[in-house]
Q: What sequence folds into this?
């Protein structure tokens, strides 16, 4: 009887642990992501639309905008090239960034940073 009691107790502990893990993993749907865009509003690289699309972020530029270089800026300020796709006048970038910058000679830099808020 003692072994049955221990087995039941351990099963309950395992079940509670799994439920706690599931709650932590699924806490992300309550998080909204906002983006802050800084730079020259008159620049052709300044996005006219920016929206989250699943795992990606879609950055729509003016049709007359030159093709920018996109870099990810790490917390120490180092720039690393950032891969993206092109869909017409929209840049599709992986949404796993905290800070990216759009560059093109003569247009200035446009910074896009992620600001998370938890509800």
A:
């Amino acid at each position: 009887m003692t072994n049955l009691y221990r087995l039941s107790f351990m099963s309950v502990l395992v079940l509670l642990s799994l439920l706690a893990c599931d709650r932590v993993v699924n806490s992300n749907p309550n998080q909204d992501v906002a983006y802050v865009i800084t730079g020259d509003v008159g620049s052709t690289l300044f996005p006219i639309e920016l929206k989250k699309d699943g795992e990606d972020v879609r950055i729509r530029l003016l049709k007359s905008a030159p093709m920018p270089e996109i870099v990810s800026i790490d917390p120490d300020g180092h720039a690393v090239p950032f891969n993206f796709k092109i869909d017409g006048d929209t840049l599709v970038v992986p949404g796993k960034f905290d800070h990216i910058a759009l560059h093109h000679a003569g247009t200035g830099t446009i910074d896009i940073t992620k600001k998370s808020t938890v509800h």
